[in-house]
């Protein structure tokens, strides 16, 4: 049962990451506003989008899901930080939905990472192979 729950969590994280890409890659006004406000428009918007796409792919591959979870945790941690320090909870009247989605994604990627921690290659093991 635990195995299926983890798979569902990985799929949920990947879906969340991928569904936001169209806003970043099409320069949706809300996305442009967010990245302009934090001083990362346009390169940060595109770069974060590419990194989220990579994270979504990695989290779905069993051998690299730990890496996808780490990448997601870092990227979304940055988003949460930007909300708390620069952007605020609510963006353009969204009622905080982007912030809350980021918090949920951060939590889910943390859970996936916790369950995948034993799959993280150890440096000394990699060097010996």
From TrEMBL:
It is a multi-pass membrane protein. The keyword Membrane applies. InterPro entries: DoxX (IPR032808). Pfam families: DoxX_2. The chain crosses the membrane at residues 7-23, 43-61, 66-86, 98-115. Its main location: membrane. It is found in: Membrane. GO terms for cellular component: membrane. Keywords: Membrane, Transmembrane, Transmembrane helix. This is DoxX family protein. It comes from Flammeovirga aprica JL-4. The lineage of its organism: Bacteria, Pseudomonadati, Bacteroidota, Cytophagia, Cytophagales.
């Amino acid at each position: 049962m635990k195995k299926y729950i983890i798979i569902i969590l990985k799929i949920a994280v990947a879906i969340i990451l991928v569904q936001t890409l169209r806003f970043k890659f099409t320069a949706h006004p809300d996305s442009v506003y967010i990245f302009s406000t934090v001083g990362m428009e346009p390169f940060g918007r595109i770069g974060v989008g590419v990194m989220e796409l990579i994270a979504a792919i990695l989290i779905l591959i069993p051998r690299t899901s730990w890496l996808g979870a780490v990448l997601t945790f870092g990227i979304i941690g940055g988003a949460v930080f930007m909300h708390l320090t620069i952007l605020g909870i609510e963006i353009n009247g969204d009622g905080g939905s982007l912030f809350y989605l980021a918090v949920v994604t951060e939590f889910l990627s943390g859970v996936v990472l916790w369950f995948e921690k034993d799959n993280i290659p150890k440096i000394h093991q990699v060097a010996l192979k």
